[in-house]
User: Fold this.
Amino acid sequence: MNLIDKQKLDYVLFHLSLTVNLKNFEDSFIFLSKSKTISHNYSNKIIFALSEKGFNINDIKTINSIPILFPFLDLDEFYYIDDRNNLIFNHDFITSSFYLLSGKQEHNSESKDRFGRFPYNDSIQKELSIINKPIVNYYFDIITKGLKYWCEKNNFKFESKKLFKNFGFQLTHDIDRID
Assistant:
């Protein structure tokens, strides 16, 4: 059973679509679990591996100092193009992204601080020493590079997007209690 349903997949793809025009790829995306054969039934597709296992910190694979929370194959390459011209991602970047974007670890934990919040000391970010590393951005960069590579091989239009026309700083506040 995949950990990612359509709603969660759409959530991750929405965030990815902020940096890449995914409309060009909608008909090419295939999402497969490990129990299914990766590519023999497909050609000219973009295949994302989806994990069937729950999160386990002992399963994390680090490649080029990037922790993959849901590794799929025991390979150090992030993706490849097979002999049927499929772009195949070797690890589950979708579930890994969802896990971090959604704060899934907070929902699955009973650990709370004195204010009822999930404590940093129990976080995967602390455990992996990645608090200052934008891991989801790295995942999206890997996906983007794979898509761009596939497009170049197929003379297909690739469009990246800028999230902001001009960079700006927006200060917000989180107020727990007002006296």
The CA atoms of residues 18 and 164 lie 10 Å apart. DSSP finds five helices and six strands in the chain. The chain has a mean pLDDT of 86. Residues 135-154 form the longest helix (20 residues).
